[in-house]
Every structure is written in C-alpha cells, then in structure tokens.
Amino acid sequence: MERIDKIISSALNISRSDARALIKKGLVTVNGSAVRSISQHVDENSDELFCRGEKITYSKYVYIMMNKPAGVISASEGKGEPTVTDILPDEMKRRNLFPAGRLDKNTTGFMLITDDGDFAHRILSPKNHIPKTYVAVLDKPFDSIVAEDFEKGMTLGDEVCMPAQISALDEEKRVAQVTIRQGMYHQIKRMFSKHGITVEELKRIKMGSLELDKSLKEGECRYLTARELEEIEKKIIATNCI
Ligand code: URA
Predict the structure, then answer these.
(1) Is residue 143 within 8 Å of residue 159, measured between CB atoms?
(2) With the CA atoms of 190, 196, 200 and 205 taken in that order, what torsion angle do they form, in degrees rounded to the nearest 10?
(3) In the 8-state DSSP scheme, what is residue 179?
(4) Are 4 and 35 spatial neighbours (Cβ–Cβ below 8 Å)?
(5) Which CA distances in Å does 240 have to 117, 126, 189?
(6) How far is the CA of 96 from the centre of ligand 1 (A)?
(7) SS3 of 21, please?
(8) Whole-prediction pTM value?
(9) Counting Cβ atoms within 10 Å, is residue 125 exposed (0-12), middle (13-18) or buried (19+)?
(10) Is residue 98 within 8 Å of 76, Cβ to Cβ?
(11) Which residues are catalytic?
(12) Which of 72, 126, 147, 185 is 20 to 30 Å apart from 102, CA to CA?
C-alpha cells in the first residue's frame, strides 16, 4: 500500500504539493470514486487509479537500461551539461531518478537508471563486487605483460585493483574486453595508462550477468524486466572472446 499523493506525484512527475492540489479538487479517482484525502492509501497492484480521466500506471520503483551516448554526464544534475536523466523520454521521467553508478562523459553503453536507493546501494557496494564488462579500443596493442598485470590485480598509486579479466576481440589486440569488479575513478583508463596505452573509446556492455540490449541505439532506453533485474546481481561471467 502506498499514499495516493506519493503515487500521483511520482506517476505524473509533479511535486507532492501539486499532486495534493489535484486530489483536493476531486480530480483523482480510485476504483471509480473521487478521493478527497491526500493521505489515503491505495494498493498499487489492484486499485484502479484515474486522474482527470486518464489511467495512472504506477510502480513503486523503476529500473531503466540506457545505452548512454558520449557527451552526456552520468548524474542527475549536470550544472548546465546534459545528464542521463535529462535525455530520458518524457514518458519515462519521474522524480528521484538517478544513475546507479558512473561512466565518464565520453564512455558509452550500459547505464542503469533507477529510483530504488537500496538496489543501487547493493549493486554499487564495493563489498558485493558486481562485475562490469567493457570494450576498450586502444591506441596500441596490449601484450601478455599487460594482461598478467590486469589478471593478478594491479596497483594504481596506493590503490589496489582486484583481479580483472582481459581478452582480445581482434587479431591485433587493439580492442580489449575487460571485466572489473570495482568502480574506481577512471579505473580502466588508468589501468591501461599505467602501461603507456591510451583508451580511445570505452563502452560498457554488461553489468553482472546482464548484457546491454543490442537493439538499443545510443541514447535509447527501456525498462528492465524483473528477471533481467536479477541478472545484474549475478556474478557469473561469460567469456565469449577470441
Ligand atoms: N573505467 C573508466 O576509465 N571509465 C569509465 O567510464 C568506466 C570505467
């Protein structure tokens, strides 16, 4: 059960006080009867809600997979620069959405956007070591010395990285698939940079066991299914590299 003003505010992406004003004007109905009390609780799964004659669909939390384009900030506030929440389609926008995790401005790929703080906390917690897989295009090939350093768990200054997986996606070894289990600042770029290699392009293709939907073009997004959501917390790593 959830308070009606909270549901209306969230579903219509309006403030709680604007939602209360609509309720007080008798414009919101539950199962055919106008609601007058802003504190009425409704069952979001079984009660039928309408506002000004339009059906309200509501879920407590939403989970959105976005194929983040380059040039967009992974934050809810961009201080003048476009953010991943700014570029959501209007029908998906709602209050309190934030990106669960960070990608650099020029990194593309799998970005999870939600309003479920507990879920985000779980998948971002360093203790949980959720694997994240990236494809990195490099300015020069990587060799076995680089691969060994990735795999044993390299040090970056006074920070210690957990063992990472690396494999080549091309003959020349200039395109690498890398899986890391932490979210250190610029982690992949710094890991390659330690070996004199510059990452020219970086794309996240997987979180946990869930792959970025290949049908999503850059800037596009869709809701996750309940089953897909579980995949994010699974730590199995499929290796499908050459
Ligand atoms: N590592 C990086 O260097 N950048 C990202 O955006 C993500 C991982």
Answers:
(1) no
(2) -50
(3) E
(4) yes
(5) 32, 25, 22
(6) 24
(7) helix
(8) 0.85
(9) exposed
(10) yes
(11) 104
(12) 147
Return d(Cα 129, Cα 122) in angstroms, integer. 10
Residues with Cβ < 8 Å from 215, sequence gap 6 or more?
A: none
Task: Read off the tokens for 42.
Answer: 């409704």
- Residues 77 and 70: their CA atoms lie apart, in Å, by 17
Cα 1 to ligand 1 centroid, rounded to whole Å: 40
Q: Which atom of ligand 1 is nearest to the CA of 107?
A: 6
pLDDT in tens, the chain (242 residues): 889 998 898 888 888 999 999 999 999 999 999 998 998 999 877 899 999 999 998 888 999 999 999 999 998 888 899 999 999 999 899 888 999 999 999 999 999 999 999 999 999 988 888 999 999 999 999 999 999 999 999 999 999 999 999 999 999 999 999 999 998 999 999 999 999 999 999 999 999 999 999 999 999 999 998 889 988 988 765 444 43
Q: What is the secondary structure of 91-150 as a DSSP string?
A: GG--TT-EESS---TT-EEEEEEES-HHHHHHHH-GGG---EEEEEEESS---HHHHHHH
Which protein residue's CA is at the shortest distance from atom 4 of ligand 1? 186
Helix axis angle for 16-24 and 4-12, nearest 10°, is: 120
Ligand 1 centroid distance, CA of 187 (Å): 5
